[in-house]
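Hi P.,

Sorry for the delay on this. The queue was packed all week, but I finally got your sequence through. Input first:
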Amino acid sequence: MQQLHKQTDITLKNSFEQTQFIDWRTQARSYKLYPNFFRRYNIDEYEELRFIKNFGKITTTKKYGKEEVNLRANPSAGGLYPCEVYIQIRGIKGFLSGIYHYEPLNNNLTLIHELSNDGLEYYFNTDSKKFIFLISNVYFRSSWKYDKRANRYLLLDTGHQLASIYTSLKNENISFDFEFNFDKKNLNKEFGFDTQEFFQCAILVDNEKDTKPKQLRETLVSVAPTDYFIKNIFLEEFIKRIEDEKIEEKIDSRIFENLEIKNIQNSIDKRRSIRGFKKESISKNEFEELTKDIFEIAQKINIELYFINNNIKDMKQGVYKNVTLVEEGDFKPTAAKLAFNQKLGGDSCFTLFFTANENSNYLVSYIFSAFLAHIINLRCTNLDIGCSGIGAYFDDESKKVLNTTNNILYLQAIGK
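Then the structure:
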């Protein structure tokens, strides 16, 4: 993974060599639809399932000329939405036990497999579960714009999607477990994904029965996740690595128990990614509320946080490692430069840098960087503070300024 990461670095040199032109008329479709003859169920009609809407529902629609863009509850790099969510459901009164595909644009669950004595539990080697939520990636939606560097955006989008599911379950006081170690290779085959789509991670909810279901009795119908597809050899190598990789450390969901998000539903409904700041300051108390427990949790999962303080009251300007000032000074122009010359980096009150060393698990570090960023994003909504994730940045220059050999995984600009 480390080698693949370095091949997607943005440096001062190679940024001038990029000549890719984006023709937005050719954007791949950003949602998957099963044929009309598949049975669909409107989520609103089932009280026990209404929380699923928060996984990615449309929260607003914007017009750009004649074009309409649907914005969802979870952010996505470039608005490309490479994540799909599949849900196995058991034991809901009046609802058929089966495997469903979530359609955020239509607020539907599409039945793609009715359960008998089989189930997804077989691929996790676990007892029967009430819910299993699976997150997949459709790589071409991202590689259409970002080419090789799409491997990073896929992981970041997965982290935001995972956090969307997490906050929805937290809002319902539903206990769960994260799962990264399962038979991805065979499960990808069972879903007929070929190489266009692949599973990243899962969330398992509550034992339904003390039985272990059998392997799926049939391969599911294969449906193309985009309207057209261009193969990317680099990303398919990345997919193979993910299929084969075993994550040694268990990510205990209890680590996140104290991650408080006030007014969760309101935050989910109103969350937005900002496009510019007014350059107003925030207080030290607001900074501490936004980042409460974030630094401690990041360390537990081997993520190292840095930030550049541009405009937090009662805190010295400069570069911080965790919450310790390591270099004092006005770094606004530098922060903007590091963020691929985006003003957001320097106009923010502070810009966070999520990093991890080469010995950390690559998938876990990347996915949970976006996961933690998502929590901060929701907290920002409650305080009427702007926030935006930044996936394009100068890797080499960021390392120099932060004085670290860590991989730079994600930037997050926060301010007013």
